[in-house]
Structures are given as C-alpha cells and as structure tokens.
C-alpha cells in the first residue's frame, strides 16, 4: 500500500463510502460517514493488504486515517 | 491508484462484475430504485464478495426500497447479544436479499440480551418476525474467575441456560404471533480450555461444554418458534470464531468471519421459515452424476464406482439420494440421446441412484433452460422452485438466463467437492420434515402415470370419471399441524392469501372458539396423495368466513378444489349460515383465483373479499367422492350427496 490516498480509495471501495483524499487528516469523530465498525473493518483490511499482524491497539487509538496509516506502516 | 484492488481476495471475475454494478448503482444513488436487479447479481457472488455487497445494501433505507417496490417481501429481524454485532448486518442483509427478502433490522445495544427478558423493551416494539440472540464465543467466560475448575463452568452454563429459557418464554409471550427466536451453539475456545493443565480436567470441561450445547439443541422446535443454529459443523470447515484483539479493544468477541458464517446460516433458516424452499433438484449427468461421457463411453461405460474418482461420484449420488428420501424431487436434464440416458440410468444397479429415483428426465439436444421449464411444467411446479446443478459453466449461464428464479449450483471438475457444493446454499432446508415429504417423490411418479393416462384418453371428462377421485375434508388433528403449516409455506398458485403459518399458529387457530381448520386429503386409483389442502375460517353472525384455502399444485385440475368449496357451501347452508365470505389477497402467483371463485358463484364484496349468498349452489363434481365433516369428533361426516 503506497500511500494514505490508496488506503482511502480501498476503504471507499470495501466499505461502500465516499471519503475524499482531504479526509486523511480529519479527526475520525468529525467524519460524517465514519463509525466504530469501520475501524474494525480497517484493521482486517490493513492486515490483509499488508499481509502481517498489526498493533491493533495503536490503530484503534489513532485519531485520523493518516495516523492509522502511519501506525500500520511503522509496525 | 487502487491498482491492487482485490488482489489476493480470491474473488472471481463474475463476482467482480456483479460487485462493480452494485457499486456503480450505490455511487449513482440508484440502488433502491434498481433493487430488483440486486438478487440476480448476488447469485453470482462468493461469500467474501457478498459481505462487500452487504455493506452497500445495509446502508440503504428499507423504507426507501419498499417505497420504490411495494410488493417486496420484508422480514423484520431483531438482533441481540452481549457484544458488538454490527458486522452481522452486511452479510445478513446480503444473504437475505439473495433469498429475495428485504431486511428490516433492529440491533439491540442492551448487552447480555437483557432486552429479551424485558417485555417492554424496544426489541419487542420492533415487532420482529425473527429474533437472533447471538451467543458469541466468549459466552460465560466473563463470569469465570481463577482459580476455576470444570464445575465452575458447569454452574455458569446452567445459569446461562436458565437465562435463555426465561428469554424464550418471554419471547413466546411478547413477540408477534408466528415469530421465531434463534439461539446458537457456542464453540469452546482453546485459549480457555487449555487454561486447565490437567488433561483429565480438560476432557471433563469438553464434556460439560458439549452437554450444555446438546441441551440447547434439544430445545429447538423451529416450527413452534424456537430455533437453534448448530455452528459446530460450520466452524469445522475452518472459520476462526474470535479475534482476541478485537475482543479486548472493541468488545467484538465474535470475529467478522464467525458473524458472516452465522449470517449465512440464519438467512437460510429465515428463508426456510418463510417457505422459500425449493422442490426439485435437476441434475446434469456427465461429470455431475457419473464419471465419463455418455455419448463417447456408452451407457455401460460411465461409472460411479470402481476407481477413486468414480467413488467420489458415488458419494455425491448418495448425498442426492438422502435429499430425495426427505421429499426433494429429482430430475435429470442432460444433453444426450434420450435412449442412451434411459439405458445408462437402468444399466447400473451398483449406482446409488437409478431410473426409479427420478420423477422426470429431460434428455435431448435443446437448451437446458427449455428442458427445465418442461420438467417444471410436467411436474406442475414453478420453474423458480428448481435447483439446477451442473459442472459446465455454459449450461449454468443458459439456465440462469432462461429460468429466472431457479437456483444454480456451480459444480466443478472435482466430484469430491460436489456434496458440499450441493449443500452450500441450504436450498432444501425445512423447519421440519413431515411424513408427507418422504412420500412426495412416489406421489409425483403417480402423477406422471396419471398424466400419461390422461394423454391416452381423448375425453377429459371420461378420464376424470375413470380416476376414482376421493377427497376427505375434516378438522385438522394435532399431528397434521406441521404438514398444514408446510402446505401454507409451499403452496403459491392455489393459496388465497399467500399467508405463511407456523405449526404453532395452525394449532392456535384450530383451538380458537368458532374457528374452522380443516385438512383435505385426496386419493385416486393411481395412489394416495395424502394431505394436500387446508381450509381456515371461522363462523360468525354474518356467516361462514374463509380466511384462507390452500391446495397443493400437485392435485389441481382433478375437480378436488371445486368439490371442497362446493361441499363447504352446502354444509354452510345446511348449518343455517346466511353466506360464505372468502378472503383473497393478491400475491405474485394467485391472480387466477378470483375468476375461479366467480365460476363457483362468488361475487366481489369489498376489498379482497368475495361473498356467496348461498342461493344457487354449485354441485360437487360427480366424479369426486367427497367426505366432508366439520365435527372434530368425526362422528357425523356427510358424503357429497348429503353435504
């Protein structure tokens, strides 16, 4: 997964929502289309895409998609 | 940018195009409007792709879909449990849509399914047709603290059983009539069982756990409103039940894969409760039922035993035979010479299936879609109640396109996988199998003999006279209630209202003061048709009101339906009723019935009602020997001449 933009595109496709690239830095609580279920789906999606086990606690605790992407890439 | 989309998900090209169309509709905001397109698209999706499709569908407002398509069948489902269950909704929405049902969900947030035992809860305000009480893999373990022994778990399981029994009792009282509560068995997780280091104690825990599961399963009586999904066979296929991380950080104790598998089983259960059952399994021959190619190897050259591969076909035939023993009609649709097919079906006594096991054989070189349409017409069933299994993708596409509504099972080149592919869709699941089911294939064969006799007799009236038709109408007895409920679920063409009843509802109706619940049996010289019809009604000041009349398609056209109605009209007049009123509610299949009622002298009397003033009564057809009694004791029956 090359960038947070790719992550957003995959999220839109898999979750059936319409986030924009600019949403990468928005606090998840302020994203109208985002809910806690999406966070769980995102963990599964990232682990599948990156083919490795991720630090779920760090990802669930991150506040934006960019922070989530960074936590996943750093692990 | 998303060049790696779906890489490695195992989703095939057909699924991708189906998903693509759904996504395009969702983006354009036309998914609700184009909802009838959804079902055929879902037919092609594998389970992974169905979850993705479900995420799109679950975002739709059911009210919006209903507004665009008022005739769509809706099922109201309440979902409750201890943990986060939101991931159940997408696969449940998609699986139900695949069965033609629109999900109207309510997901409880109460925790510990306390809302089930609270008669005033929002769950009951949802008026659920079905309530799913999801027991997750961590059930009871939150009550266990160290140091613990198997005995402590046994106590916790017993407390749980009591809670569930109480919940079931409240549900039976508080949920709408005919509603079903669904529990499930709970897998024993290794991370708990292996906290016991003594192997003897660990084995004891395993025994206690399975005993608790068995007790839960013994509670099941789906026809009476309590079902239990046995998840062990499902999880044994290789599904991880929990994700400890999501459990720890997000209270999601059931893994998405567990919930998706649960959704698939629950949707099948709901579809079977709704009467979505299929009646006939149509099978290809070469590569499906036997090894070899009939046209090349000849009738004696095809095999289902003698080699490992051939034995795999034999195992598939035994699976099919087991389905047939429970009432599934078997038919063959093959592109081969008819004579060769007949020879091959009779030439192999070592095959589990022989010519006698099939109620219809269509062999020839035309389209298989036409072959299936003809089989359905010959059997008097709807083409949409057919399940077709074939190992050739082309033939499957032909049938998908040419037989709308038929279920198509994709078999592949490996016969060892045929049995699980055949059973994957649960197309033949029923709330309960009755004696009538086991006898069904024989009755359809008798029907075939009757049809040939009819074809040989030029004069239809003479044919009917020669049939020796007998019909018996009498109040339903308790053991017949399950069959009556099943008739309400299976009959479409001759079902005045389309109402589907559970066994419990049939018994309740029969016990109500002034109510009429009649079972209709038929027989003729070709055989006993068994219990083939039902009449539900009640007597009131304005006369006899018939709430529903059902008749199996299998017996239509022999004068039985006219005899039953004429007999009832005579009996009503003799009993001093001023009129008989019939309720008709249009469904997709029963549009012909008002014309039929008019032919018997009924006249429209307000919305969906037809009334017979009992002045000029139709005669019971002379060729039918009708025995009709409305007395539950059965002592004062009357024959056609006196009713």
UniProtKB/TrEMBL annotation, chain A:
Carrier domain residues: 1-75
A Pfam family hit: PP-binding
Name of the protein: Carrier domain-containing protein
Tree of life domain: Bacteria
TrEMBL record, chain B:
PROSITE patterns in the cross-refs: GNAT
Transmembrane segments: none
Matching InterPro entries: Acyl_CoA_acyltransferase, FkbH_domain, GNAT_dom, HAD-like_sf, HAD_sf, HAD_SF_ppase_IIIC, SGNH_hydro_sf
The organism's place on the tree of life at top rank: Bacteria
Domain N-acetyltransferase: 471-631
GO molecular function per UniProt: acyltransferase activity, transferring groups other than amino-acyl groups
NCBIfam families referenced in this protein's UniProt entry, alphabetically: FkbH, HAD-SF-IIIC
Protein name as annotated: N-acetyltransferase domain-containing protein
